[in-house]
Amino acid sequence: MDRAFRDGRLRVDWAGIYTNIEGGGMDFTRRVVLGTCFVALLTAAAGMKARTAEDAGRKEIDAFNKRYVELHEKMDTPGILALWEEDGVDLMPGDAAMVGQKKISAWVEDILAKMPGYKVMKQEMEFHDIHVCGKWASEWATEHQVVQPPDGKPVIESYGKTALVLHREASGEWKVQQEMWNAAPKP
Length: 187
Description:
By secondary structure, the chain is α+β, with helices and mostly antiparallel strands. 35% of the residues lie in helices and 40% in strands.
């Protein structure tokens, strides 16, 4: 470093950059410090905005999940299917991929037609690893369902795991883009 004091001036040679500091005014240093502070503030603000957006997205997904479970418990097939993207994909074990609301709806209606008088008594889903990134979200859930068959037959208790990929439409509403389900053992 080259320091030359002349009439209260300091000349600094750093990587070929000469800076003059006159009369105690540290022009270069002040700019560097202020610039660094500005970048730090922008970074912090961006991080806070991202966390705020992620928190808001998480609250939206929590509300979606609550509605999703309620509709299953009520056996509200039209309500459930309204939560699906028009081109949604359902992946069920042992079946080919079902693509589109119409195909998924036909599959659900076929199952319900084979189960007249059955009633969902309990639908529990515990959601895990909820990730929100802009217009997309992913999560998985453990599921417990209790179904009462007609004519006093014993209840059917089932357990499963579900993976969901959700998409936020232009309206702000979250929809199921993809679902994968499989059975799980009783915990």
